[in-house]
Amino acid sequence: MKVLVAGGYHSGKSSVIRSLSGGKSIHIDKHGTTVALDYGRIDVEGLKIHLFGTPGMRHFRVLREVLSKGADGVLFVIDSADPGRDEEAASVKREIDEILPDVTRVYLANKQDVDGARRPEIIRQVFRIPDDVPVIGTSTVTGLNLMLALKTLLAKLIEKVAPLLNVLVRYDGKVGGISQFAEAMMFNLASIRKVFNWLELRGYVEVDWRAGIFWLVPPIKSILEKPDEILKGI
């Protein structure tokens, strides 16, 4: 699963990835500023999450577009301690909204450890974030709520694909299960291949095309067995 970590310049994106990945992240920078990307990986509830951080400065738009491709969700990091960076952050936010209009996101009101940092509800008002989109106060210095933010995003992503997963589970591990699923969903061959390629790429299923069988991976089965827990962002 690919998660884009975006935000304005010096909002804390690199630190978010470094913290979530346990310090095992790749960072390409010049003079302390990200000029290419950050990358980290973390397992959450058994699912492999790939974190891609984008440069925050405005002239890196093309690179942000490239890194955004295929993103399943967005963690958008905002510097809650420096209103002077709001305009730049708003510009990047508009850009991400344009590039990934329908992709699930969670906003991080970062740097809550700094005196005078604005609370999440203020950040929501300033950036006009809808009420149904989470805004979570975080700190990369103390680790405050970083994992909560990621798990909240994961919960919303699972919730989004739950209807599809609940149909898949009926044919899990059955001979001819792929064809049966395609018939149930009224998908043609081209469509069903796209669906399973998408699911396989994100680590939801394993597929044997020769036998026409697919298997939901254990973490997904576990999530489907306890949806109330995962949808609360365990």
Characterization of this structure:
The chain has two domains: 2-156, P-loop containing nucleotide triphosphate hydrolases (Rossmann fold), CATH 3.40.50; 160-230, Orthogonal Bundle (Arc Repressor Mutant, subunit A), CATH 1.10.10. Helices cover 40% and strands 24% of the residues. The chain contains nine helices and nine strands. It has helices spanning 13-20, 61-68, 86-99, 120-126, 146-168, 177-185, 189-201, 218-225, 227-230, and strands at residues 2-7, 25-30, 33-44, 47-53, 73-79, 104-110, 135-137, 205-208, 213-216. A hairpin with a 2-residue loop joins strand 3 and strand 4. Helix 2 (61-68) packs across helix 3. It is elongated. The two termini are 18 Å apart.
